Amino acid sequence: MLQDALLAWIHYLAIFLMVVAMTAQTVLLRPAMADTVVRRLAIYDRLYLVSAIAVLVTGLLRLMLGAKGAAFYMANPWFHAKIGLFVLIGLCSIPPTLAFLRWNKQARQQAGYVPEGGQIKHARRWVMVEVHLLVLVPLCAALMARGIGL
Questions:
Q1: Which pLDDT belongs to residue 97?
Q2: pLDDT higher than 90, residue 5
């Protein structure tokens, strides 16, 4: 029981950290951003990656070692919807990540580099898609935890 509670707690912390990284990216991706923001975006993107991996690992640990057992989750359609959303969010994070890597490389080569407004808008659009999809994950989790759809 204690193990299940600790795994849930670490899982939630990882989720909160992921939300913080996504929020920071959303706030920083503005037209006419300062050149110092480029490096911060790359840092927050790394934090996002680490937190997403932590969410995945702790989620798998909860699946295998949690109190409800894998059979409960595997039979639940909301579990599959939640995992599908997580994968979709991960795929949506690829374009902004690639942009942040390009921008960071350019900023190291050229002092004062700031991406063009269209590039910033494109990256922000993808991050906003991620954020809006993420809102559905707790709904799936709540429906899953209550066994709805079984």
A1: 97
A2: yes
Query: Angle of helix 36-65 relative to helix 94-109, nearest 10 degrees?
Result: 140
Q: Answer whether 7's CB lies under 8 Å from 58's CB.
A: yes
pTM: predicted TM-score of the whole model, two decimal places = 0.90
Torsion of the alpha carbons at 110, 43, 29 and 12, rounded to the nearest 10: 170
Give the DSSP H or E segment for 133.
helix 117-134
Helix pair 136-145, 77-92: axis angle to 10 deg: 160
The residue with tokens 């110092």 is 36
Collapsing DSSP states into helix, strand and coil, what is residue 128?
helix
Residues 75, 147: Cα–Cα separation, whole Å = 10
> In this structure, what token pair is assigned to residue 98?
């690639």
CA pair distance 136, 142, nearest whole angstrom: 10
Q: Quick one: tokens of 91?
A: 């795929």
Residue 68: what residue type?
K
- What average pLDDT score do residues 24-53 get? 94
